[in-house]
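Can anyone check this?
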Amino acid sequence: MAEHLASIFGTEKDRVNCPFYFKIGACRHGDRCSRLHTKPSISPTILLSNMYQRPDMINPGVDPQGQALDPRKIQEHFEDFYEDLFEELNKYGEIESLNICDNLADHMVGNVYVQYREEEHAANAVQNLSGRFYGGRPIIVDFSPVTDFREATCRQYEENVCNRGGYCNFMHLKKISKELRRQLFGRYRRRRSRSRSHSPHRHRGYGERPPGGRGYGRRDDDRAQRYHDRGRRPRSGSPGRRGRSRSPGEKKGRSPIRESSVERRAKIDQWNRERERAGSRNNADGQHDYDNNMRNGGEYDDYPQQ
């Protein structure tokens, strides 16, 4: 039973908790809703209710004096507000996303959703923003259950086909220019890249690489260290490198000049003549020893005669 209740929590099948409040952090019924609006005690997302005031809030595209507003002026007004708010919220922690609703319904108009990287950052923001004012209006801030803005956003609005307009019950998130987004959120990417570059686990020298790593063994490490000590750069072992690889038994000096066939035959003949002369000399010495032995009356004796 508990598993079933957990699986349907915040969905249309949940008859206790309001699915709209769980998805978008707001409900058009407000306190009169028949289902519970359970506010989280801690969350990485905070809600600043009705904070953004559009210049054409009364009539879209028209200012309070009834004059038509240039869409570029409306976008410029919005981006000024977005940048000003981002700089203030950034004081309390790293911001994952800052979303501002473009809806016109009372429970969603001007809602600002700020998702921090850590829950502690969101708690710090709630503590510091409570009781403050912006543009002469009090800031209403609280934790929000929204963590996945893909589920809270109107997909038809993103495709410019939503037929409910500003009174849709799903978020119509107003967009900022790519330049402003790169300027504001790019600082986090640069900060992370710098922290990775200064990390002791990055950019190691040859001798600091652990042996047995992928594509890098102990022999490669020793080889690179030897070249480093000699002040030379290790050559690649690719087949296309210059020169011929030297065998383990081959000396570093140049190989002797190869003799011609005529020179080799002459040298062989000289060896044969020397061997024949040596053989004839041995035979003559043997015959001389034999004659002396027979003349003395017997075989060689290792002992002297008495």
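Reply from J.R.: I decoded it. The longest strand covers residues 95-100.
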